[in-house]
Design a protein that fits this description.
This protein is mostly beta strands. The strands form 3 sheets. Strands 6-2-3-4-18-17-16-10-14 form a 9-stranded antiparallel sheet. Strands 5-1-7-8-9 form a 5-stranded antiparallel sheet, with helices on one face. The protein has a 4-stranded antiparallel sheet with strand order 13-12-11-15. A hairpin with a 2-residue loop joins strand 7 and strand 8. The longest helix has 12 residues. The chain is elongated and about 55 Å long. The N and C termini lie far apart (48 Å).
């Protein structure tokens, strides 16, 4: 088994986000894509990555294979990748081999861990609000909200504006994202919706804003939120988070 991604730094950002959710995970290699699914220990959030074979400059997977790994261990060397460097992933006996190549080549080997995998069902949810916004306003909206409290509220009451509201005991902040600003790419509101989520879980995926220019946010009042980040064109990371009960 051997696959090569043209941009190691993008994969590093995915693992950076993942490392804030779980300590161990499994990469599953199938004939047409690489899949990773993870549920945080509290079972509040779910992380799903899918990278189709078309994203890879080389994709040699003759039969389904897996790499189990400690997220903090591989993040240490993946974070050293520079823009434009490629990432080769191979399995050699009981080891996983990661090669970062650019003007020079670095090779890292880790033990391929056997990690017990919980079968995670596909979420069957219907959403009343779907907003696609530029990633930068989401990142700063979450960071601004963190300055006043531990709760973020997503609000979509009209199709002209999406609001990220930070709430604390004695203060609050709002990030308003409108069509006029250009930061609101699309907004569909089937019915006015507002729902609150814990900042400690939302900020886990801020690293993904480094590799996704925009993010689609799907939610309904007092329901889970689904954030979908396009990765390198055809790939994606989906983050599902339960609402915060206040």
């Amino acid at each position: 088994m051997k696959v090569v991604l043209p941009e190691a730094k993008s994969f590093a950002s995915i693992i950076e986000a993942l490392s804030k959710i779980v300590d161990e995970a499994t990469l599953k290699f199938t004939s047409d894509k690489v899949i990773l699914k993870a549920l945080d220990p509290a079972k509040v959030s779910m992380f799903v990555m899918e990278l189709p074979s078309s994203l890879f400059t080389e994709y040699d997977v003759s039969e389904e294979d897996r790499i189990g790994f400690n997220t903090s261990v591989i993040l240490k060397f993946l974070k050293r990748a520079k823009k434009g460097e490629s990432l080769e992933i191979m399995i050699e006996d009981s080891y996983a081999k990661f090669t970062i190549a650019g003007t020079y080549t670095r090779i890292y080997k880790i033990l391929n861990l056997k990690i017990s995998e919980e079968e995670l069902p596909e979420p069957q949810l219907e959403f009343n609000a779907l907003a696609t916004i530029l990633s930068d306003p989401l990142k700063h909206g979450i960071k601004d909200a963190e300055t006043v409290g531990d709760t973020v509220e997503f609000i979509a009451e009209t199709e002209e504006e999406f609001i990220i509201k930070g709430k604390g005991e004695a203060s609050e902040t709002e990030t308003r994202i409108s069509r006029e600003s250009g930061a609101l790419v699309a907004l569909e509101v089937k019915e006015p919706s507002r729902s609150s989520y814990a900042i400690e879980y939302l900020k886990n995926i801020v690293a993904l804003t480094k590799v996704a220019d925009a993010v689609t946010i799907k939610f309904s009042s007092r329901m889970p939120v689904m954030l979908e980040f396009p990765i390198m064109g055809e790939g994606k990371v989906v983050y599902l988070l339960a609402p915060k009960v206040e």
